[in-house]
Structures are given as C-alpha cells and as structure tokens.
C-alpha cells in the first residue's frame, strides 16, 4: 500500500499545491504544479464530474451541489485517484495504489483541519489564487499535512 501524491486545485482550475511522495527521498513540493500531468489529472476529474452530472439528468442548482461529491474515487490498472470537492470548489486529490479503498475521511480531514486552519483562517496566507504562479507555500500547512499523511497506516 502506498500514497503517491496529494494535490489541491482551486476554483480557477490551477494546481495550487502538489506534494509527491517518493520512496528514495523526501519527494517534491510544488514542483509539478504547471506540468502536463497536473493539467491532465484535473481534466480527467473535471470530465468525469461532467459525465456524472449529465447522467444524473437534473441540472438544478440543488442537484449540482450534491453531484459535486458523487465522484469519490476511480481506478486504473496502476493506481486509484481519490477525490473530494469542497463547497468553495477546492478539489483535493490523492493518488494511491489500487489496494486502498476509501480515503474520503482523509481528504475531509486535510480540508477541514489543515487547509481551513492554515490557509483560510490565516490572515497572512493567500485565499484566492488567481494566476498559475500562485501556490501554497505556508510552512505550517506543508509540515502538518506531511506529518498527517505520513502517519497514516496506508502510507509506505
């Protein structure tokens, strides 16, 4: 079992935080935010969400907010992508191996206990990331999310 990466996308479709975990070193933080892999990851999630909304058939505002969290995870032959979207359209994504089933509670913890605490409630931290160059560099957020993810039993 392994966790490969953790990403956050904002409401402007920008990757504002990307943490990749590596078995050989400490991994990277915010190095691959503007790469094609981040854009493809967002595109896949966005497309699947749109497919779900089309299949649901009802386009009212109430149903759209409930549809946003219909997509919880999907898998390929190599990995599984776990997805959580907040009411403010922040998208939290964790990529793991296929043996890990459900990480919704972990994604909720990352949003409610770490993002809200260190980014939303921090007056010195940016809340609205308007350009592709603006990223999360808050050291408290980075250190605490790293410690939390690395303390999970599924992290190897």
From TrEMBL:
InterPro entries: Longin-like_dom_sf, TRAPPC
CC annotations in GO: endoplasmic reticulum; TRAPPI protein complex; TRAPPII protein complex; TRAPPIII protein complex
Name of this protein: Trafficking protein particle complex subunit
GO BP, sorted A to Z: endoplasmic reticulum to Golgi vesicle-mediated transport
GO terms of molecular function: guanyl-nucleotide exchange factor activity
Protein species of origin: Hyphopichia burtonii NRRL Y-1933
SMART domains (alphabetical): Sybindin
Keyword Transport in annotation: yes
Subcellular location, principal: endoplasmic reticulum
Positions in coiled-coil regions: none
Cellular location(s): Endoplasmic reticulum; Golgi apparatus, cis-Golgi network
Family as reported in the entry's similarity comment: Belongs to the TRAPP small subunits family. BET5 subfamily.
Assembly and oligomerization: Part of the multisubunit transport protein particle (TRAPP) complex.
SUPFAM superfamilies: SNARE-like (SSF64356)
Keywords tagged on the record: Endoplasmic reticulum, ER-Golgi transport, Golgi apparatus, Transport
């Amino acid at each position: 079992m392994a966790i490969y990466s953790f990403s956050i996308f904002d409401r402007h479709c920008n990757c504002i935080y990307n943490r990749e975990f590596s078995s050989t070193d400490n991994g990277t933080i915010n190095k691959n935010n503007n790469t094609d892999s981040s854009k493809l990851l967002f595109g896949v999630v966005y497309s699947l969400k749109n497919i779900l909304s089309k299949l649901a058939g009802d386009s009212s505002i109430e149903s759209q907010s409930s549809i946003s969290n219909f997509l919880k995870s999907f898998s390929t032959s190599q990995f599984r992508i776990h997805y959580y979207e907040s009411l403010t359209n922040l998208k939290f994504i964790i990529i793991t191996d296929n043996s890990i089933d459900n990480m919704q509670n972990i994604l909720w913890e990352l949003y409610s206990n770490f993002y809200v605490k260190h980014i939303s409630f921090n007056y010195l931290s940016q809340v609205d990331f308007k350009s592709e160059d603006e990223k999360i560099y808050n050291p408290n957020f980075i250190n605490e999310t790293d410690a939390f993810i690395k303390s999970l039993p599924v992290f190897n």
